[in-house]
Amino acid sequence: MRHQIDLSPLGNAVDAVVGVSRSGRRETDGQGAATAETPFRIASLTKPLTAIATVVAAEKADVDLETPVADLGPIGSGADLGLSVAHLLAQTSGLAPVVTADAVAAIGDGEGALGEAARLVLGAGQVRPPGKRWEYYNGNYFVAGALLASLAGGSYEEALDHTLLRPWGLTRTTFTVPADLVPGTEQGQVLPGASYPRGRRPSGGLCATAADLLTVGEQLLARPELLAVVRTVRTRADDPMRYGFGWAIGRSGQLYLNGRLPGYRAAWMIVPEHDLVAVGLAAGSETLPALAQILDEQQASLTGDRIADDIDAFAA
Q1: Which of 2, 137, 146, 290 is a plausible cystine mate for 10, CB 3.0–4.6 Å?
Q2: Which Gene3D superfamilies does this UniProt record tie to the protein (predicted)?
Q3: 306 and 180, same domain (yes or no)
Q4: pTM, rounded to two decimals
């Protein structure tokens, strides 16, 4: 049976693409110049890739995810002794969310930028003990990315490439801005291209295609043990949302999140029980509600849930 992807909620003013994989059978639809192979900035959709790679690298290095960050070398020196790798990936670190994007950009883009960003985050200390409350903070992923680099060897970019991007066959997912990157727009105006600070890359620096993100979802579904680690709810009953490693977890076990950068919006969803992966990428700052609606329509008849508002409201 052929399913249809209804892009009408997007209007026709922006370049956008939505891809859906059902048990490995793909359908994509794009508008403007966009296809499944067109790169967009994916913003916080980078986080699940950092999380997956960290889990894989930790397993290869025989490091338990509950290992205190303080035990994992110079990056972790001075960290709260109760702070673990798992707390970072689950956004339950309790770290003071005070390190700003401007502070990280001021570090520059040298080889040591990410390590310095991680030290800034850890040096700001705790506002609560680790594990007590979920709070979305990009700084958690600065530290996680630095730890991934330490676990796998080399830079964070090399570690992600060697651990995940190349082994999983992602051909167009990169930190290097592609020549054919769709330019972002806001209220119909094309925004100038902006660099993404190296110290922030683990939280949101990737450019990718819908085809590559469908591949990630399919590969994760094909690895049930890894999927189980990523989708386990790590938050408490009174937290503002259910969250695993890099993903919010829906009422029927859906994994979902969104990504936001000036000029771009992105949304991603995996429904493991129905072997469904869906992703939407758009070059327009006003498009997230429409992307959330389109992805919601792909899963609603399967789960009985409506999660458009959840996808739209996610705190990326």
Answers
A1: 290
A2: DD-peptidase/beta-lactamase superfamily (3.40.710.10)
A3: yes
A4: 0.97
